[in-house]
Design brief:
alpha+beta; Diaminopimelate Epimerase, Chain A, domain 1; 19-stranded mixed beta sheet; 5 helices; 19 strands; binds the ligand N[C@@H](CCC[C@H](N)C(=O)O)C(=O)O; diaminopimelate epimerase activity
Length: 279
């Protein structure tokens, strides 16, 4: 099977083109787990499929490293846009639509003189706040902020959906935060019906923030595009951030802009290698 490894700010996935590979004989969750395993597979944060769409120019499906299928993936969308453009799937259009389980988004690629795409903007649409949006059993305030208890400690955060669920917490120092210890406890907290992605963010000024994430189904990753969108939206709602912000993630920087309520995300997309796996 032909696969391509790509990353965006270190958030790395194995990409498979359904235009080239027939996957009907595979159990997709198992395939994602196998490929993501660094010892017995390739090693990645998960698997992403690029395929034909009835409703948009192309379709993305995203599976986390544990095999669960997610609704959306911001870093994946930028890589899918790069892949689709460079492989001629969108016939040279620099602006096109990608279908996800969370809906259809617009992507804009910026090819260089050789036709390679180093960076991409995706219009991620509007985000939703509150318990219903993320599948949270419990109360929230009018801003969509909720508290949960873990081993006697209280954690407060914004419930934000970017198609997929996020719990965004403003903390004093995201860089030093024990993400590995607290992240999984919140991901699996019984209040979150579908589990959740967990963000720990520290605004440094109204224009930039430090960001760390514990991703549902993948654990600590170097970046999370939907998480960055959710965090900036929460920061704007809290009056802490402006509408044009640079997010500092472990793997590099992402530009997030909120324009007329819509969240635009701009950042890199990188191909690492293309090869063949025998699975
Ligand atoms: N890394 C992604 C999000 C991938 C899915 C997420 N773990 C979930 O289960 O919702 C991004 O860049 O947005």
């Amino acid at each position: 099977m032909k696969v391509t490894k790509m990353h965006a700010l270190g958030n790395n996935y194995i990409y498979i083109s359904e235009f080239e590979e027939k996957l009907t004989n595979y159990q997709l969750s198992d395939l994602a787990v196998q490929l993501s395993d660094v010892r017995k597979g390739i090693g990645s944060d998960g698997m992403i499929l690029i395929g034909p769409s009835q409703r948009a120019d192309i379709r993305m499906r995203i599976f986390n490293a544990d095999g669960s299928e997610a609704e959306n993936c911001g870093n994946g969308l930028r890589c899918v846009a790069k892949y689709a453009y460079e492989h001629g799937y969108v016939h040279g259009q620099t602006n096109f639509q990608i279908e996800t389980k969370a809906g259809i988004v617009d992507a804009t690629v910026y090819p260089d003189a050789k036709g390679y795409v180093p960076s991409v903007t995706v219009d991620m649409g509007t985000v939703q706040f509150g318990p219903e949006a993320v599948g949270f059993r419990g109360e929230a305030d009018r801003a969509g902020r909720a508290s949960i208890e873990v081993n006697g400690d209280i954690y407060s955060g914004y419930l934000v959906s970017v198609g997929n669920p996020h719990f965004v917490q403003f903390v004093e120092n995201a860089k030093e935060y024990p993400v590995e210890e607290i992240g999984p406890k919140i991901e699996h907290h019984p209040s979150f019906i579908h589990r959740t992605n967990v963000e720990f963010v520290t605004p440094k000024t109204p224009y930039e923030l430090d960001f760390r994430v514990w991703e549902r189904g993948s654990g600590i990753t170097f970046a999370c595009g939907t998480g960055a969108c959710a965090s900036v939206a929460a920061g704007v709602a809290a009056g802490l951030l402006a509408e044009q912000v640079t997010v500092h993630l472990l793997g590099g920087d992402l530009r997030i802009e909120i324009r007329n309520g819509r969240v635009l995300m701009t950042g890199e997309a990188v191909e690492v290698f293309t090869g063949e796996v025998h699975i």
